[in-house]
Amino acid sequence: MSHNNPESLPEFAQLVQQLSNKTNHPATKRMPTAAKQTLRRDLLNQYDEQTLSRKGIWQLWRFAGSVAGAMLLAVVVIWFVMAISQSQSNNNVSSPVVVPTGTVEEVEVTAVSTPSPTLPPMPFILNADMGDSMQLRGYAIKPESGFLIFETDESFQIDLFWETTGQPTADYMTYLHMLDKNGALLTQDGYSLGETSTLAAGTQFSKNATLLLPLDISPGTYTINIGLYDSKTGQRSSQIELTQIEIRTNMDK
Amino acid sequence: MFMRNHDEEALVKQAQTDPQTFGRLYDRYVDRIYAYAYRQVQDATLAQDVTAVTFEKALRHIRKYRWQGKSFCAWLYRIARNEAMSHHRQQRRQVSWQFVESNDSGISNGREMETAILQSRHNQQLHQALAKLSPKDYEILSLRFFESLGNEEIAEVLNCSTNNVYVRLHRALKRLQKQLEKIDPQGEVRYVS
After folding, report:
1. Cβ separation of B180 and A15 shorter than 8 Å?
2. Do A25 and B99 make contact, defined as CB atoms within 8 angstroms?
């Protein structure tokens, strides 16, 4: 469901005209020319300082790299000299050579899943497979109280945490649907997840979505569904129930 | 629009390595950002601070800025908005909005005087109605009409989708209309041409 620009509605034509009239705009001022020039000069100085500081940091890194390289070389040389002198002394003693026997045991290496370095902590973990290598790792909901006070909160925000398990084949959009207990769609919104087809396996990213509540919503429990669709073809991938939220009015507080 | 975006994209890319180009971006947007900051904080010194911090932050992060087809101007507005909001949080006070006084100079005859008086009353009513809106409603109307941002730019500033902007704008206009009806139930002043 795409919304039309309300400015084109006849019911708002006069109001839009009034608001567009500059004489109705809140008072503002122009920034004094001297202050503008001072700020400009300061900014350009800062720009130069940043560039110099970047160059300084780069030179410091280069110096540190050279020192580390020289130390490493020294360690290698010392180790080499010690190894040669030891082998010479061993040859002098002519000790028997011990040859190891037997087979090498195969060791099973298992991947250890490490906590994500990029995603912030998620209050709700899902790890839901959304198809085509797209995994919904979890979500956070704001306000965090678990319910919304209608007339106070007209909207709520959901932060979605994604991870690719392989390289997706399409660029995906995500949609959120809010349904009543009869499954009727009350509100929805859609967001692009960017060029997901270019993401490598294991890429993590988060995206937030805002759902606006309908003005005539009744108190009760509502379901939020989430799904993916191909941004080019519009073909839906999979859909899951994300969560349920409770709406209360100010009277229920 | 396309040409402007194309030009802006080239400028932003160049500004990542060239201070003079950053200066050109500054010249292009400083007045708009200052005007916006002033409307938000209603104080010339604070507005200068907000403007300075906005451009300092832009400068600090411009090298990491990736052009995604979104307006650079909207990015600046977003920084300025966050700065102004942080100022409001510190001050914990509601700003009383001041509106432009209608210019009554040069009124030569009775008809012009009548039109000017009606215009003044009309402004006053709009002022009263806007002051009664919630900060969220006021903000979206302000970004759209006073700052003349496009709906996609507003979506970028408010970090929401364009559809979301349309819905919020619709609701804000509806509420403003209701407020105006309360102030002037007959619509006598508003609908006099």
Report:
1. yes
2. yes
Q: Residue A99: is it exposed, middle or buried by C-beta count within 10 angstroms (0-12/13-18/19+)?
A: exposed
Euclidean distance between CA atoms B127 and A25, whole angstroms: 9
| Side-chain half-sphere exposure of A96, counting CA atoms within 13 A | 3
| A:B CB pairs within 8 Å | 133
The one-letter amino acid at A91:
N
Which member of B31, B142, B173 has the closest CB to residue A6? Answer: B173
| Residues on chain B touching A53 (C-beta within 8 angstroms) | none
The answer to whether residue A91 neighbours chain B at the CB level (below 8 Å) is no
* B48 contact residues in A (CB cutoff 8 A): 31, 35, 39
Residues of A in contact with B164 (CB under 8 A): 189, 210, 212
> How big is chain B by its Cα radius of gyration, in Å?
19
Report the C-alpha gap between B72 and B28 in whole angstroms.
11
From first to last of the 193 residues of chain B, give the pLDDT tens digit: 444 566 888 888 888 888 889 999 999 999 999 999 998 888 899 999 999 999 999 988 888 777 776 788 999 999 999 998 888 776 654 444 555 444 444 445 566 666 666 667 777 888 889 989 988 899 999 999 999 899 889 988 988 888 889 989 999 999 999 999 988 776 655 544 3
pTM above 0.80, yes or no: no
